[in-house]
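It is worth pausing here to work through a concrete case rather than discussing structure prediction in the abstract. The textbook approach is simple: state the sequence, then state the predicted structure, then interpret. We follow exactly that order.
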Amino acid sequence: MRDHPNIIKAVANTGALLLTLLLLACATATPYQPQIAGQRVSGGYSEDRIDDNHYRVRFAGNTLTSRDTVEGYLLYRAAELTVQSGYDWFRITDHTTETDRHTYVEHFPRYEPYYGSLYLNWRPHWRYYRSGVWSTWHPYGRDPFWSFDTDVRTVERFEAEADIVMRRGPMPANAARAFDARKVMADLGPSIKWPEEK
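Step two, the predicted structure:
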């Protein structure tokens, strides 16, 4: 019977470890993947064919994906699509990167003492007067000199889009915003984070 608490503790520790690993697996930046609904990690690339050699390419990242990564993956997808379509180089005719930014402000995070909210008013506390306002300080809550607690978080999500025109043959030396598709893939390939196998 003495082993019973130890077994419960071992099961609880194992459960906590598994939950932590699960949460860490979910908290990952968007890998280089097609954007399909219901994926484990949101975001990815998509494209629309406008003409035989003209595409609109997009890459959307989640809130953990940096702007540089989103734009790099967009460029890689443009190069990959160019090679897959049988072309050698591409030119970007239009490019935008949109930022979706949300700021969350949380005032006075609620304190829940270990004995529950039923006895919330039972605790040692002191009243003090500052700047024309009476405030309460207690050892389980806010610091009396920083009593107006606020948590501010800004979350950003980036989506890049480019119109590309693909060409065959050698790339002109003076072509503006033109890229050799195979060179782009060779240069950016080592930095690409691929989706994990299931």
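Step three, interpretation. Residues 110-148 form one domain. Residues 85 and 162 are 17 Å apart (CA to CA).
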